[in-house]
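May I ask for a protein sequence together with how it folds?
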Amino acid sequence: MGPRPRSRRRFPRSSELAPLLRPRPFILDRTDRRLARAESVNALRAIARQRVPRAVFDYTDGGAGDEIAMERSAEFFRDIEFHPRVLRDVSRVDTRTPVLGSESALPFGLGPTGFTRMMHHEGEIGVARAAARAGVPYALSTMGTTSLEDVSDAVPASRKWFQLYLWRDREASRDLVRRAAEAGYEALVLTVDTPVAGPRLRDVRNGLTIPPSLTLRTVVDASRKPSWWFNLLSTPPLEFASMSSKDGTIAQLVGSMFDPAATVADLGWLREIWGGKLIVKGVQGVADARAVVDAGADAVVVSNHGGRQLDRAPVPMEQLPAIAKAIGDHADVLVDGGIRSGADVAVALCLGADFVLIGRAYLFGLMAGGERGVDRALELMAVELRNTMQLLGVDSIDQLQDSHVRRRDQRG
């Protein structure tokens, strides 16, 4: 065998180089430029960490105790194996799905989060506007920093839910229910996994207060995040806006909010005074799911509060199939916890969820770029969901089945 012929070298012609020289267009707006670099929600999280004080980021990013429950939720998704079908026509994909009797453009909505203007001064109104553009529901928290009336006035033509706790003072709860009805909220989201507050150790270590206190530590931090502090100090003070007419400190309001004596009978009371849809959030087992549906719930959210209440609580995705089988013919089954991508949403739907709620995922977008950052988070997750559906060989949400997923430790 003779020697192999050597390739002849030559200088490329300018006409050959020109098509290869395609620099990205320069984006003038700094926020748009920053968000364009994010290719995933996790990338938004990395940007968010650089944009806000550590105590604010940790409040969003952290969980209860040793954060075991939070970590297990994330680990669950890493252990999932997809099983696609091939040679299916997926040239068009439909992500629309019904929830509570009305259509949502995507099978996921934005769950309730507290102190949202602490993450970015545009806060709840920015989140609600992004949700409206995406055609998905948004749940405003009782612990929100914008009143339910202000959100409704700012975004009237959208699907708005209001999250509620059962207070020790039932008349205060009754007043919020009345205001939600008058402001046009379609559903109440009753959170039931908070008889007391969970141990948020990151917040303890960071000395977090609401609003943030100007201690020596925060003053030093302010020098590193001047734009965040300027926005905080030049906009209305952080407060529980839907309760701003109540007397007392924020600590006293929190103490009055959670009622450790609440029972299923109180759910019946709420059902009597609220004529709209009723969602019960924080269900973690079949028996409780059946009990709240029997008491009048139209939907349940299988949730451990994002791992922020009881550490070592069950992983919602592990409880989801049994709960969906038990009550799926009688109520909508929603789920949250650890969802950071459109692929994660697809997993939840395969396991029996009718709809998914996200929390940290859109808050990372909010911290990274305000309202536009929430838009970016929703856009990224929608693209990932469509791509996952196409690669699985399905073209509609109702085609996602449990046969498409399997835990790797359950192969056999």
Residues 36-82+91-410 form a domain with the TIM Barrel fold (CATH 3.20.20.70). The longest helix spans residues 360-392. The chain has one domain: 36-82+91-410. Residues 247-252 have pLDDT under 50 and may be disordered.
